[in-house]
Amino acid sequence: MKNFLVPTDFSDCAGFALEVAVALAERFKGHVHLMHVLDMPEDWQLAEGGGQENWALQVEWENRAFQQLQHLRERYPDTSLTTSCTIGPLVARIRAHADEPGMDLIVMGSHGSSGKSDFFIGSNTQKDAQK
Predict the structure, then answer these.
(1) Is the pLDDT assigned to residue 15 strictly greater than 90?
(2) Residue 3 phi/psi, 5° resolution?
(3) Which of 5, 9, 47, 93 is the residue whose CA sits 20 to 30 A from 41?
(4) DSSP one-letter string for 56-89
């Protein structure tokens, strides 16, 4: 295993998953692919009047996400780690990234509907398996 995909929503559970992925990458001399998805329809800017206001909001959200991704990247300076931010349906974007050649494992934390913190299983982590 060399390539570890870590989707993040910047929650504590996602942070724990990142720590696991970093440990795996260090152990196997691998690479962490840290991604954030702005979970919205790709054409959302055109909805409800769209225009400049929606574009400005999207730019603000993307800038915040990039800042948070950069902060996480700086926490692991000795780890081979890249970051990305994309817009679209969450599960579809994770699946597309996971299907890239060479991707070995998705490491994803979840806070399940039971109210307990679940690691590697839970709401969004199980959606793909049910299809």
Answers:
(1) yes
(2) -120, 125
(3) 5
(4) HHHHHHHHHHHHHHHHHHHH-TTS-EEEEEEEE-
